[in-house]
Amino acid sequence: TVQRLQPFASTIFAEMTALAVRHDAINLGQGFPDTDGPASMLDTARQAIADGLNQYPPGPGMPVLRQAVAADRLARYGLDHDPDSEVLITVGATEAISAAILGLVEPGEEVVLIEPYYDSYAASVALAGAVRRSVPLARAGTKFVVDLDALSAAITPKTRMLVINTPHNPTGTVFTPDEIAAVAELACEHDLLVLSDEVYEHLVFDGRTHTALATLPGMYERTVSVSSAAKTFNVTGWKIGWACGPAELIDAVRTAKQYMSFVGGGPFQPAVAHALSHEQQWVKELRDSLQAKRDVLYDALVASGLEVHSGGGTYYLCADITAIGERDGIDFCRTLPERIGVAAVPVSVFTDHPQPWNPLVRFAFCKQDHVLEEAARRLRTLG
Ligand code: PMP
Ligand code: GLN
User: Fold this and answer.
1) Which of 55, 61, 291, 302 has a Cα at 20 to 30 A from 44?
2) Whose CA is closest to atom 7 on ligand 2?
3) Structural domain that includes position 207
4) Which residues form the Aminotransferase class I/classII large domain (predicted)?
5) Is residue 134 within 8 Å of residue 112, measured between CB atoms?
6) In a 3-state reduction of DSSP, which class is residue 20?
């Protein structure tokens, strides 16, 4: 393995999922749902295969999907993307993220991350030969907030890009409109590109709304917005994602993407297009059901004696294990599957400054009710 990739030899998701399998534990570590997406979407995919849509789709993605993504962003955010030049279909959000960094950041330039961060950001920055500067979220009681002073201090003349993710993995935080506006102002002031990872855009609870970064003043022209079908339609294995933004930026993402995978997921593209156009009610029901699951897990974690944090969106809740006499989330997660038959992931592995994050553990609640109830029962035995 080349030196710049050596710190990334294995992912926490692979490690904890393997442990869950070994101990037949309920896997609340890796975030994936255990039910299928809308039936009409699955039927459309089956039909696409039967109709022979099994060869390379067009490089930027099938027009029907690019149009559906553009129409969806226009309807929900008022953003008017040209489907031909401002929407690119990718192999999951993961490829969109890597291709955006590879296509837009020169080796040696700096990328600012907010930690804890989704693990592929740091690896993608390393792949690009760029330098990451990570700024911790601040803790305000059981909430996480963007530390604007620290963010501002991390920006140097070499900074090219800022990566922001809301709703936020792993903490489950939905950043407030004020926080997002302040981040946008900073990006404009320093003339930075912004990679906005919005894969959980639909999964916001308790009446919150998602703020798409590109809608803020001065942001459209500097933002690559990334999302995917994985979390919106329960198809994490389909790997249909997209990047949207001004033509010049999307062209750079496309340039990198075409040599990574060229294309992907042919018959799934019309299926996701169908879902975006016809299954918004299904998405609303998904959001409501996830909010209820969040509550079940929240109660179980509190009953087990843990201090639970945030919880405004996504698939995840974070809990502090200090209250039950534990200190190290990595040790805790390595033994939890054997101990009580539940897997989780430690938050500190998503950071460059692990110390303050050591006692935090992330639990996913995107599971069927009976699975979650059983996990809740097992978690309560901790307390
Ligand atoms: N960003 C975040 C914040 C995620 O949680 C995930 C999925 N776990 C991804 C990107 C990757 O999305 P995809 O599965 O569409 O590649
Ligand atoms: N997005 C999911 C999570 O954060 C899964 C990521 C993965 O398996 N790479 O848990």
Assistant:
1) 291
2) 13
3) 39-278
4) 24-379
5) yes
6) helix
Of 59, 83, 60, nearest in space to 245 by CA: 83
- The residue from 248, 263, 278 where one domain ends is 278
Instruction: Among 16, 21, 28, 32, say which to mutate for ligand 2: greatest number of ligand atoms within 8 Å of CB.
Output: 32
Determine the distance separating the centroid of ligand 2 and the alpha carbon of 371, expressed in angstroms: 19
Based on the domain organization, do 159 and 299 belong to the same domain? no
Whether residues 204 and 306 fall in one domain: no
The two structure tokens encoding residue 329 = 């989330």
Least trusted range by pLDDT, from 8-17, 30-39, 83-92, 159-168: 8-17
Separation CA 221–CA 231 (nearest Å): 26
For residues 67 and 97, state if they share a domain.
Answer: yes
Give me the long-range contacts of 50-55 (CB less than 8 A, separation at least 24): 53/266, 53/267, 53/270, 54/266, 54/267, 55/266
Closest C-alpha residue for ligand 2 atom 8: 13
In the reported structure, the alpha carbon of residue 31 is separated from the centroid of ligand 2 by a whole-number distance in angstroms of 5
Per-residue pLDDT tens for 123-153?
Answer: 999 999 999 999 999 998 889 999 999 999 9
Q: How far is CA 223 from CA 82, 91, 164, 215, 360, in A?
A: 15, 19, 10, 10, 31
Residues 215 and 313 in one domain: no
- Per-residue pLDDT at 89 exceeds 90: yes
What CATH number is given to the structural domain containing 69?
Answer: 3.40.640.10
Closest ligand to Cα 13: 2
Centre of ligand 1 to C-alpha 228, Å, is: 8
- Judgement on whether residues 27 and 49 belong to the same structural domain of the protein: no
CATH number at residue 22: 3.90.1150.10
65 and 99 assigned to the same domain: yes
Nearest atom, ligand 2, residue 199 CA: 1
Asked whether the CA dihedral 51, 56, 59, 61 is positive or negative, the reply is positive
